[in-house]
Amino acid sequence: MSLVERDLKVIWHPYTQMQTAQPPIPIVRGEGTCLFDEDGKKYIDAVSSWWVTIHGHSHPYIAKKVAEQLNKLEHAIFAGFTHEGAVQLAERLLKLLPANQQKAFYSDNGSTAVEVAIKMCLQYWHNNGGARTKILAFKNAYHGDTFGAMAVSGRSAFTAAFDQLLFEVEFIDTPDEGNLETLKAQITKLKSELACFIFEPLVQGAGGMLMYEAKHLDGLMAHCKKEGVLLIADEIFTGFGRTGKSFACYHVNEQPDIMCFSKGLTGGTMALGLTTCTQHIYNAFLSDDKMKTLFHGHSFTANPIACASALASMDLFVEPGTAANIQQIVERHVAFKNKIKDHPKIKAIRQTGTILAMDWETGGDTSYFNSLRDTLYQYFLDAGIIMRPLGNTIYILPPYCITDEELTYVYAKVEQALNEL
Ligand code: PMP
Q1: Is 193 exposed, middle or buried (0-12, 13-18, 19+ CB in 10 A)?
Q2: Which residue in 98, 199, 277, 371 could disulfide with 255, CB within 3.0 to 4.6 Å?
Q3: pTM, two decimal places
């Protein structure tokens, strides 16, 4: 039996309607920007494998560091015990973050990093005897698939089956020139109830690569600070260079109270989640009263292999060559955007850092279920490019090691698709 046949017998794939989906493509190897299937066909991973792979696939340096770690310590319980990798990663990451970030809490993935952040905020108020229990979030937000993370995500097809069970969240529009003052007034009105505000800074990824301006986010953050609303920046997607700066929060002046990381944290090699917070939040959990403890922890918290890959990824991330590669992608994205922006098939095009997204004209609404999605997906696969359109929105966010030739090829195929489809 082929791998695909065996797969179809036993596997239930994520975000996949198993009845109608095409059979999966069996991948056997990764190198640089590319994945290779069983038949040796090469695919340029233009979406960094769900936005995680920042230095390229099977990076030899990360592989070496992970192998070394495997031979030393594969795992250790993280309550009551510690290890070098976890401490070093926290020390080094905190140095890269806004100065107010002082403590690191580990988990396994993006959704759990968000769950931890939400719990930190809600229990912060609980421990302080306060009555703030509501969470503020953006419409169209996406923060993960576990229940808490789903609850703070915009209500959508992803959440529809569970809507009645999700706790109530106050959703506001993303800010712009016209609505900022209204949003601020909304926050002020609710301030006595609002525990925290969670947001994806600058780019709402899964919501459709929707982008909004840093200066307006800054205004909203400053207002939340004034009203005592804690700020959670979900940098799971935007962190580690995606927006052109190391972290999206460096596009604004205000500093969040809590930050969430995953995806690029390990260079995409291992699953790892991390939630950082200020000393002030941490202090709210210090007590002789055991009930003030943050009762949260996963079996694989701070897994040493995951920490080793994160440390190796960070070594690569801080190399000057990486910033230069990021800058190169940014410049080429801008040039390509300007080249194609007036094409009649393009309804809207936008770019932040290494993320370039465009909505295709379909005559209808831009939506996750737009049937153009399957056509575009297959078109690019046939051309040896992995794109995963969000409905009629396609986006390019490659690993930073993408070569000039590879990026030129991806752009050329986008142009070809615009002219042919
Ligand atoms: N937050 C954001 C902004 C994300 O983009 C994602 C994943 N796409 C998550 C949280 C959830 O991360 P994970 O899939 O690792 O649970």
Answers
A1: middle
A2: 98
A3: 0.97
